Amino acid sequence: MKPKGWKELPPGSVVTKPGSAEEFKTGSWRSFRPVWVPENCIQCLFCWMYCPDMAIKVKDGKREQFDYDYCKGCGICARECPGKKGQKAIIMVEEGK
Amino acid sequence: MAKVVAVTGNEAVANALRQANPDVCAAYPITPQTDIMQRFSGFVADGLVNTELILVESEHSAMSACVGASAGGGRVITATSSQGLALMWEILFIAAGDRLPIVMPLVNRALSAPLNIHGDHSDGMGARDCGWIQLWSENAQEAYDNTLQAFRIAEHMDVRLPVMICLDGFIISHSIERLEYLDDAEATDFVGKYTPLYPLLDVDHPVSYGPLILPDLYMEYKRAQHEVMTKAGKVVLDVAADFAKVTGRNYGLFESYRLDDAEIALVILNSAAGTAKDTVDEFRGKGIRAGLLKPRLFRPFPYREVAEALKSAKAVCVLDRADSFGGFGPMYMEIASAMMLNGAKPLLINKIYGLGGRDFLPEHAELVLSELAEIAKSGAVRTFKEYIGVRE
Ligand code: SF4
Ligand code: SF4
Q: Given this structure, which CATH class describes domain B3-178+214-247?
């Protein structure tokens, strides 16, 4: 998206397009990346419920990959994940590593 | 037909607000403004307006409620003074940044400490940079007229900014003066119907107010805000022209009093300008070419026009009823900026007067005009900033 100049802005920074947050890929804010370990996943969907950014995709009641376009890396999912036999199904890995 | 009455400045302003019939008013009492909102709440109770009156627990809440109601799509008012305006400070910027055309009479009063309830301009001057349009008023008539015009200016589609109408606490707010009211029908017709822009209550066109704007776009929004302010001056003049058609009373960006051929001039705001005009007349009577400039529109400030009006003077004194401790008075700084457009001429001095409601007397104006006559002759300035009417 080409950044807007001051002459193109709506008065008062009003956002006139509903749902436009979708256009902003906030994934670049992340410094830690959650990584899914499917073999430890019990499909409880706690992560899906807790994620504040709706960045965990679910299809037919089953957890799929993270949506890294929007995941800000807060780590809530990793903290809440019960995993299997004490083995977390989500681990946080530093970006760039 | 206009009705001629004897009323206080507060009563006059309250009636202008009644005639504009706002949708929402959120207010909190503070001396010397209280009287405006007390009268207005009477109008609400008597069914003379269709306003929803929100009684809040502080001015911070009053302005917050105004922001919400204005974003919701209503014509919104409040009024305040001094500490009340200071407490609103955070939200003043939001009202302006969100381009919400809230109208607010400000009955000017000194700021604490020490505690003082009387008239000075420290409150309004402190809100200089919050993005509100400011109209200043010499007397009750001007306060009434400015309030009616404020709705038209604020709500103009080229502007959409909040407007503050300043009048001197007690000196104007509580003194009884001769005043001409517009008929209710005439006033209502002049103010016109409110057209909301991006109202939150229009659920078919959902909008969001107050987004987070980071360094990649914030400066563009601020630049746009300056631009709209620079356009407001023209709207102020257009509205004044319409107002003159209805009332015969003329308003500009400022008032020039005997300024055309003036060699020495005073720049002075609000009620004290009335006193100073008498002294200017006296000096004219003695053959001294004295004049006076009384600013009306303080934000946006009409630098070019003021520079032009003071161009031919040799010495000018800006009188400030507010101070910047360790600096010049706030009006002096504006006039000094304007004088840069004249090649840093004429010679410009600053006097601080009337703080905390201290009287400004004709002899003060005389002293200043005599000093200016000296400066005009000798070209030498003794001191650039001084306090008048103060004991050592
Ligand atoms: S790290 Fe935070 S934002 Fe990313 S998927 Fe987990 S809960 Fe959602
Ligand atoms: S919280 Fe952990 S175990 Fe539960 S679905 Fe998400 S990744 Fe799988």
A: alpha beta
pLDDT given for residue A96 in this prediction: 86
> Is residue A1 in a domain?
no
Chain A residues with CB-CB distance to B97 below 8 A: 12-13
A84 within a domain of the structure (yes/no): yes
pLDDT in tens, B73-116: 999 999 999 999 999 999 999 999 999 999 999 999 999 999 99
SS3 category, B166: strand
Average pLDDT over residues B251-257: 98
pTM of the model: 0.91
CATH code at position A72: 3.30.70.20
Question: For residue A47, what are the domain limits?
Answer: 26-94
Contact A63 CB / ligand 2 (< 6 Å): yes
Name which residue leads in pLDDT, A25 or B121: B121
ipTM of the complex: 0.84
* Ligand having the closest approach to the CA of A92: 1
Which of A26, A65, A68, A77 for a ligand 1 pocket mutation test, highest count of atoms within 8 Å of Cβ? A77
> Please, are residues B108 and B167 in contact by the beta-carbon 8 Å criterion?
yes
Q: Which CATH class is domain B254-387?
A: alpha beta
